[in-house]
Structure of Ribosomal protein L22:
Amino acid sequence: MALYTSGLVRTVARTGVTFVPRRTLASTPIRSADFNADNSSSGWWSGLKNMVGGGQSKTKVTQRPSAPKKDEGSLGASSIFGSDFQPSKGQMPSKAQQGAGEAVDRDTSRVHRGLLPDPNAQLRWERKIAVREIRKRGRLPKQVQIKRTEREQLSKSHFFKTSVKKLGPLARQIAGKNIDEAILQMRFSKKKAAQDVLGHLEHAKNLAIVRSGMGLGAEKGSKPLTVILKSGERKKIEKPTDIYIQQAWVNRGPYGHEMDHRARGQINMMRPPTTGLSVLLKEEKTRIREWEDREAKAQRARRDQLWTQLPDRKIPTQNQYYSW
């Protein structure tokens, strides 16, 4: 049996072998025993005697005070868990208690303050709208009319592992084309980034159909129309509801980190770039409206440059000298 200086006793299985603790005298703290006159002590020596001799220690054990009770929150009156929740003090009553006629103390000013934090801002906004309607005589601005009558869908892709220099030509290639034609070109393109662009175009088309309702059939009585684009190209439009890519641009993303293992144990840190693609989808009726606006503007310009002959009237005052 080996005795530690800390008061612990360990029994060694093999007889005749002394157990040597791992701690040395240099690392073991030295403690002194305080004996009373009646050879009784409440320190470590008395604890050791009680453990070896089987005696009981007279040390009084004090119990720690318990933690305060946790104050839980409450459920709302319209909560679906109201039937499984037992309300206590300070909690919202259930629907059954409200229907029984019990009084509910609720501060309505806090609810109103949460729904409308700044009432003066709403009044200013209402006055601004009223003044604008009076000044324009109820006529909506052109941009508001376009937003209400024409559909559009902006779709931004995640960052592809490519550079702006490589993705830019693909964005210029699909800009202004029909969405189905752009998907067909990206499907047979030899560019590596074309597969990422193909997946994004298919996703953007699905979003335009589901969220904005674009491309859901032609209008009744619509006939094929040939328009002249801004670039001078002639374009034949079969259905005004067909989807086309009005704009396509690239966005530079964050740089990554890769290791390039070289000879002699050297490692170079590479920073591969990432680039995203954004496309703005619209219907062909937008292209028709833009063509009509350009034609009307050109006609006004030609009308202003026309020469108008003066009326045939007599010249009342004729003089051989200039009046100035």
In short: Strands lie at 2-3, 9-10, 152-156, 225-228, 234-237, 243-252, 258-261, 267-270, 275-283. The first helix runs from residue 44 to 53.
